[in-house]
């Protein structure tokens, strides 16, 4: 086996130029494939990290997003006093009534985009410990002030610290910029829920976020609230809710990546096949000599297949290395589920690495199968005569 590996690797080194060109084509395909997987993984990771297993979200039944949901004040009051809800430092239920609307703002490059405007309650910050103020001060409840995520402050006009944002015919002063890490909150604008509801003429909250005494108590809370005839609500664990928000967009990105990869990979496989056919044609005499020395057809087949698989693996490693550089880039796109702008980063995980390398090996195997079969089928006398 060691001899076969050495033989296959040596042949790749002996034909450096064709090796580089063929592996380069495969690297391009793997780069596209890995980039799309990383994009989908980044979107999922951002939304999953947004939620916490220690929080529950109460929405209007059958609402798919916070924007579509409405919770009456009476319903919010009932949800807050359940025994599974934790208490804050002040002894009051750790529950936040929040309103969520979409608003179109102009980005710094002049293009419009939908931004999530979240009206928060005083416990909202305690429920989201990942949110950290990095500039300015917290907003004062009852005033026309907002805090903006760092992705919003850097991307939108009039959203910097000290600027004035025009929302719902009112001017809102930006008093703080917060960093929510790699979560969707970094792409939001936060203000006082009651002030924003008056401005946007909303009578009901969008959701109620409940901090749980024990995450294991979610099932009991969910069963009680969803069975209460006074309520028309659905209760979800917060991280599950945000994971569901990413499903449609992530699936679209994966399908797009697979479609693009399928198109490009056809060319890469044909390239590998041509390279391996040329290798067989140039080494007819070598193949005849190996057969004459006692190497069987199976060994010849395996040797040429290994050579093609190494070629694919080399392209996969190069493509994956190039794709890994994308992790330093932040991208933003519209989430199809919420129609709001969401900023996130490419994420390279072990799953993506294994899938990309597995795909590159598959391309090498498919591209080398027919040439290897041709080499293995050669008769000894014919091969030596043609050499």
UniProtKB/TrEMBL annotation:
Residues 260-380 form the ABC3 transporter permease C-terminal domain. Keywords: Cell membrane, Membrane, Transmembrane, Transmembrane helix. It is found in: Cell membrane. Residues 19-227 form the MacB-like periplasmic core domain. GO terms for cellular component: plasma membrane. InterPro entries: ABC-4/HrtB_transporter, ABC3_permease_C, MacB_PCD. Its main location: membrane. It is a multi-pass membrane protein. The chain crosses the membrane at residues 20-43, 252-278, 299-323, 343-370. It comes from the Bacteria. This is ABC3 transporter permease protein domain-containing protein. The lineage of its organism: Bacteria, Pseudomonadati, Thermodesulfobacteriota, Desulfovibrionia, Desulfovibrionales.
């Amino acid at each position: 086996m060691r001899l076969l590996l050495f033989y296959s690797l040596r042949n790749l080194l002996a034909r450096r130029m064709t090796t580089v060109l063929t592996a380069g084509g495969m690297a391009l395909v793997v780069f596209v494939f890995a980039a799309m997987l990383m994009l989908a993984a980044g979107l999922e990771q951002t939304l999953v990290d947004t939620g916490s297993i220690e929080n529950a979200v109460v929405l209007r039944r059958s609402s798919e997003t916070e924007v579509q949901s409405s919770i009456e004040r009476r319903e919010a009051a009932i949800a807050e006093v359940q025994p599974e809800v934790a208490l804050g430092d002040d002894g009051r239920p750790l529950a936040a009534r929040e309103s969520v609307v979409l608003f179109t703002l102009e980005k710094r490059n002049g293009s419009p985009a939908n931004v999530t405007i979240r009206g928060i309650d005083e416990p909202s910050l305690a429920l989201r410990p990942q949110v950290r103020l990095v500039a300015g001060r917290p907003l004062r409840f009852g005033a026309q002030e907002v805090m903006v995520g760092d992705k919003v402050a850097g991307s939108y006009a009039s959203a910097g610290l000290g600027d004035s944002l025009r929302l719902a015919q009112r001017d809102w002063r930006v008093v703080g910029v917060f960093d929510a890490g790699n979560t969707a909150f970094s792409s939001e604008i936060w203000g006082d829920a009651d002030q924003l509801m008056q401005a946007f003429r909303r009578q009901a909250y969008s959701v109620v976020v409940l901090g749980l005494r024990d995450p294991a108590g979610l099932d009991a809370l969910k069963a009680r609230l969803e069975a209460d005839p006074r309520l028309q609500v659905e209760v979800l664990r917060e991280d599950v809710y945000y994971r569901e928000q990413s499903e449609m967009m992530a699936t679209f990105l994966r399908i797009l990546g697979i479609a693009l990869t399928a198109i490009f990979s056809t060319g890469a496989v044909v390239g590998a096949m041509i390279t391996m056919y040329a290798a067989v044609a140039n080494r007819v005499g070598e193949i005849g000599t190996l057969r004459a020395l006692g190497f069987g057809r199976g060994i010849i087949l395996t040797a040429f297949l290994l050579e093609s698989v190494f070629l694919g693996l080399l392209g996969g490693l190069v493509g994956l290395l190039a794709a890994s550089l994308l992790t330093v880039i932040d991208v933003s796109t519209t989430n199809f589920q919420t129609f709001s702008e969401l900023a996130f980063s490419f994420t390279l995980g072990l799953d993506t690495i294994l899938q990309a390398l597995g795909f590159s090996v598959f391309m090498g195997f498919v591209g080398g199968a027919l040439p290897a079969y041709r080499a293995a089928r050669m008769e000894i006398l014919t091969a030596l005569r043609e050499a």
